[in-house]
Amino acid sequence: MWPMAMLSEPRFSRHRIALTKPIALIYIIDDIFDVFGSLDKLILFTEAIHRWDITTIDSLPRYMKMCYMALCNITNEFAYFIFKEHGWNPINSLRRAWGELFDSFLMEATWFASEHIPKAEEYLANAILSAGVHMVYIHIFFLLGEGITEESVDYLESHPTITSSPATILRLWDDLGNAKDEYQEGFDGSYLECYLKENPKYSLEKGRKHVKRMISDAWKSLNRECFSSPKPFSRRFSQSSLNGARMVRMMYDYDGDHRLLDLEEQVNSLFH
């Protein structure tokens, strides 16, 4: 669903296939950190990603080794695809982005293991990274191949509004509906939980209204970034950022039974 929304033009078929692989990895790695991995092994896993050296994974459990190998292979394959298409080798940017994502996952795992509830803003600053949105948009930027320069890559890696706002929107919508999913084995906190702990006099409803205002503010920032002139990124990249943010509500707007009714309706429409 995500690749179709963010790279919707028919001519981007190969690009959508290439994008699907890192997105799938993000979900798998998130589950490893939230549900399966012990903290000591997660620390080693993260260190191995930063070193990007296969000799560092000997002490990892088999499922982490398999994930590590898949991540390396998919990333190298993606970098080769970009080099053939656009003459630019993105491997260093991709490695840094994966390392940053792992760091954010590890921070959440550390909080959970120590039963520490961070300040709301501290949680959100990390959660914007752990949402994986920045990682996805780095891949999209290179797939589009428009305006790739040292300067534009450096700017993209600094988490500009065009990637941080969709990440904020996704994380806050997810936290509104999924923070206490009874079907989820792991639990990595939510902005709403942190906010209410800091403000014990506030009701749940007041907290939810606050989060929705933050989502609205993130949308305003994203619109300003994408429709400003001159634009720091290409029109297609801006459109991709907007489309990803538009998908969020469909993917994370749960009802009282924890169902995604809008998404179910869209999927069912494909078969009728």
From TrEMBL:
InterPro entries: Isoprenoid_synthase_dom_sf (IPR008949), Terpene_cyclase-like_1_C (IPR034741), Terpene_synthase-like (IPR050148), Terpene_synthase_metal-bd (IPR005630). Residues 1-220 form the Terpene synthase metal-binding domain. Its cofactor is Mg(2+). One of its GO terms (biological process) is terpenoid biosynthetic process. Keywords: Lyase, Magnesium, Metal-binding. Transmembrane segments: none annotated. One of its GO terms (molecular function) is magnesium ion binding. This is Terpene synthase 13. It comes from Acorus gramineus. PANTHER family: OS04G0344100 PROTEIN-RELATED, S-(+)-LINALOOL SYNTHASE, CHLOROPLASTIC.
